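Supplementary Text 2. Reproducibility record for the structural model of the 324-residue chain.

All settings were left at their defaults, and a single model was retained for analysis rather than an ensemble. We include the record here because the model underlies the residue-level annotations in Supplementary Table 4.
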Amino acid sequence: MIAPEGARPRWPGHTGSHTQARSFNPQPGGLMSDEAKRDPLRFLVVVAHPHDFTHCAGTCGIHVLMGDSVTVVTMTDGGRKHNEAYLDEMSKPEAKRDPAIANQTQEDYAAAKNREITEVCAVFGVKDLRILTFPEPLRLQHSPEAVDTLADIIADVRPHVLITHAPYNMSPAGITTHGLPTATLNDHRECAIMAMEACAMANMPDYEAKKQPHRIAAIYYLGVDVMPDQVDFYVDISDWKDHRQRAEALFKSQGQTEAFARKRIDIGAGSMGWAARTQYAEAFVRSQVETLPCIEVPQWSLQLASGSRIEHLKHIAGESTAQG
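Retained model, structure tokens:
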């Protein structure tokens, strides 16, 4: 992984001095310093398809840079998702199809995706990638053994943090024009249910195998799986925008180009950044309300409150990197 220029490790709860007024230091959560350190965390990311990892890739890159470990699990190899070139070709009359495309197998396409997700993980410094091959469409009723597989991975990795899809039936992709949620099953929600079932199983008594139980400290759902007003947590990935664009462009098997990658990140991570009052962000939903021993104010909030309003506007526009 090549860290973004100017990027530095960040973490919540930094207790250093506040940014002076009339400047804006865009360092959400504060910088890791010699005066304030914490033990490394173990992250587990569980997604339905290889490309789904990109929605939290910037966050993972930040934590790898901080010294945390990240394990990425994709429940399928994506062999039946987003093969746009193949679908276009098969839509033609048989006599007009290009054999090089029409004769492609699912295994060929999945192998290409495996290479792409491996490259993408390397962009963000993720070394532990586990590609599972449960059938698509991904359904718990068809693959109940997936819960056991994930529970074993949890027992192996023993993560402090889990990032996965949202287990809800309301998402931007599932809302009809009438504003009503759909009851149609989808791979993302099924993956989330599998992950949550595995979390419960990993923390249950195992009288036969005598496995050590494990309870995950914090669970975050991907913000792309919920409506914007349901998001309650953002990670500033402004320094990682170029990495996110590169990751999108690497998924050439899905027909994605450099221009498409730039547009997708500008609109997707850019809109989340606008909501988060920064340039680019990744959105999450916490699985449950947090309980803390006191009210904690992140360094990011303190900097925002005490900094220059003009410098903040310049930061959002990408015009300023002023440091306090």
